[in-house]
């Protein structure tokens, strides 16, 4: 399946836009998405950290993904 | 009671304080974040804030709910700016009202500390000779 992933802050610069399309297996997990993103965009792995959010919640590696999920790359936050 | 807002307009500090003021509260604690003119000795020209708006609102709501559970406080307000801010402008206002001051201080500190760790908001510092996303790299 193809998923659209939102990117913010420095992640937007690294992937070259505010969304990026990623091809995954139909039963892919958040961990597999992370690995795919790090392979396509090695600069993500150089960040202090990054999280994946699914439907506006922080997700963990073994969470399953579905095509219609709203998925986002969350680089280190720096609000306040 | 909780009031959470993200705005691209200047934050009105006195109306934030008015909102938390309450007859059953004997103390209000306010944290005001301001844009500092330098980072590590380097002059900052401006800050640019970006938000993942809906998730940021959700995370701010969670923090306020946690603070209401942890301490005997009556009202919590969190307002955050987005967009371009000049030196001296206010990116964040947190106001907490409680019957007694200790809970207001503790809940206010918890709210700003947790916001900085979990809320998906990013700031870019703009210098004379470049720009950097704060905290992005180790």
From TrEMBL, chain A:
* GO terms classed as biological process: Mo-molybdopterin cofactor biosynthetic process
What Gene3D superfamilies has UniProt attached to this entry? 3.10.20.30
Asked if the keyword Nucleotide-binding belongs to this entry, the reply reads yes
The protein's name = Molybdopterin synthase sulfur carrier subunit
- What is this protein's gene name? moaD
One GO CC term on file: molybdopterin adenylyltransferase complex
Q: Name one GO molecular function term.
A: nucleotide binding
Classification via InterPro entries: Beta-grasp_dom_sf, MOCS2A, Mopterin_synth/thiamin_S_b, ThiS/MoaD-like
Per the similarity annotation, which family is this?
Belongs to the MoaD family.
Automatic annotation (TrEMBL), chain B:
Q: What's the EC number here?
A: 2.8.1.12
Pathway in which this enzyme or protein is active? Cofactor biosynthesis; molybdopterin biosynthesis
Return the SUPFAM superfamilies for the record. Molybdopterin synthase subunit MoaE
Q: Which Gene Ontology molecular-function terms are recorded?
A: molybdopterin synthase activity
Question: Known Gene3D superfamilies for this protein?
Answer: Molybdopterin biosynthesis MoaE subunit (3.90.1170.40)
Q: Which keywords label this protein?
A: Molybdenum cofactor biosynthesis
- Catalysed transformations (reactions): 2 [molybdopterin-synthase sulfur-carrier protein]-C-terminal-Gly-aminoethanethioate + cyclic pyranopterin phosphate + H2O = molybdopterin + 2 [molybdopterin-synthase sulfur-carrier protein]-C-terminal Gly-Gly + 2 H(+)
Q: Give any single GO term for biological process.
A: Mo-molybdopterin cofactor biosynthetic process
**Top-level taxon in the UniProt lineage:** Bacteria
- Membrane-crossing ranges are none
Q: Which CDD domains match?
A: MoaE
Q: How does it assemble?
A: Heterotetramer of 2 MoaD subunits and 2 MoaE subunits. Also stable as homodimer. The enzyme changes between these two forms during catalysis.
Q: Which family does it belong to?
A: Belongs to the MoaE family.
Q: What is this protein called?
A: Molybdopterin synthase catalytic subunit
